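Field log, afternoon session.

UNIT: design team B
ACTIVITY: writing a sequence onto a fixed backbone
BACKBONE:
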């Protein structure tokens, strides 16, 4: 088995931002004597409160339940509710094929050709196993009990974002329906790889502009696993919510290379079984 040398570095600079709370950038360096190594950049986001979810026209549709009898059906995005989060770090990009391969020793991806393509075709179970192994490699406490798939949020290792953390990061302080700096689907071309500009494939990370939080591909390229089970929102003000205690499917967020613009909005929610794998499913990681 190859020996890996791991170095965690605090970069001495801040992202350019109009905010006084510009996020710090942390770099997890994994030096591999065989492959030359790689790093994972983590952006620290400040604590804050935001409005999660959407009540827009895109969150409802008409369903015919009998001949000429229609009811209004609402999606999982309602109701809008206030959420408060503590400080956390999140990877600036989706985990790439190179990063996954150095940690796990293989890459399951369908698309290939560049190491900086996001890893895909990974299940939720694959993603949390990656988090545990990266935690062990960097001397941190693994967050997941793999026998039960439970996450211990008090540990300092890597894990998948809660969907509240994911939406907070995606919005980057913006209240706009289409995300950071986007007033409509046409603006998504600047920050998201989706059906209209992806050429039906994944694309290298960092090849489009970041969002207002300095994060790349939050709204496209690959769907991203979150830690939570899929369930209805609690409409009360919550602090550091972690979702339902049980469920059948896990949350995925963000839109993918095959998604419509509407499906790339920050509030869009969907679920997949945790052993599900497809070439549009990937992930990014968070830590305390």
């Amino acid at each position: 088995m190859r020996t890996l040398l791991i170095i965690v570095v605090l970069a001495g600079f801040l992202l350019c931002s109009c905010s006084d709370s510009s996020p710090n950038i942390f770099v997890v360096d994994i030096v591999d004597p065989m492959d030359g190594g790689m790093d994972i950049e983590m952006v620290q986001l400040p604590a804050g409160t935001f409005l999660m979810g959407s009540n827009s026209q895109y969150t409802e549709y008409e369903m015919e339940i009998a001949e000429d009898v229609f009811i209004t059906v609402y999606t999982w995005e309602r109701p809008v509710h206030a959420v408060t989060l503590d400080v956390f770090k999140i990877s600036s990009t989706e985990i790439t094929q190179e990063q996954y391969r150095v940690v796990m020793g293989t890459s399951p991806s369908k698309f290939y050709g560049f190491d900086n393509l996001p890893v895909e075709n990974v299940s939720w179970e694959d993603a949390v196993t990656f988090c545990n192994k990266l935690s062990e490699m960097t001397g941190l406490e693994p967050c997941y009990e793999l026998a039960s798939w439970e996450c211990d949020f008090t540990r300092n290792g890597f894990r998948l974002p809660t969907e509240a953390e994911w939406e907070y990061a995606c919005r980057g302080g913006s209240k706009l329906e289409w995300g950071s700096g986007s007033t409509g689907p046409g603006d998504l071309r600047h920050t998201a790889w989706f059906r209209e500009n992806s050429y039906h494939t994944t694309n290298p990370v960092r090849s489009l502009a970041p969002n207002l939080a300095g994060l790349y591909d939050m709204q496209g390229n690959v769907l991203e696993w979150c830690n939570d089970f899929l369930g209805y929102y609690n409409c009360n003000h919550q602090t550091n919510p972690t979702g339902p205690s049980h469920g059948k499917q896990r949350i995925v967020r963000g839109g993918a290379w095959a998604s419509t613009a509407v499906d790339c909005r920050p509030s869009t929610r969907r679920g997949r079984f945790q052993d599900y794998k497809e070439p549009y499913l990937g992930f990014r990681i968070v830590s305390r």
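LOG NOTE: The helical segments are 97-104, 124-137, 163-171.
NEXT ACTIVITY: expression trials, pending approval
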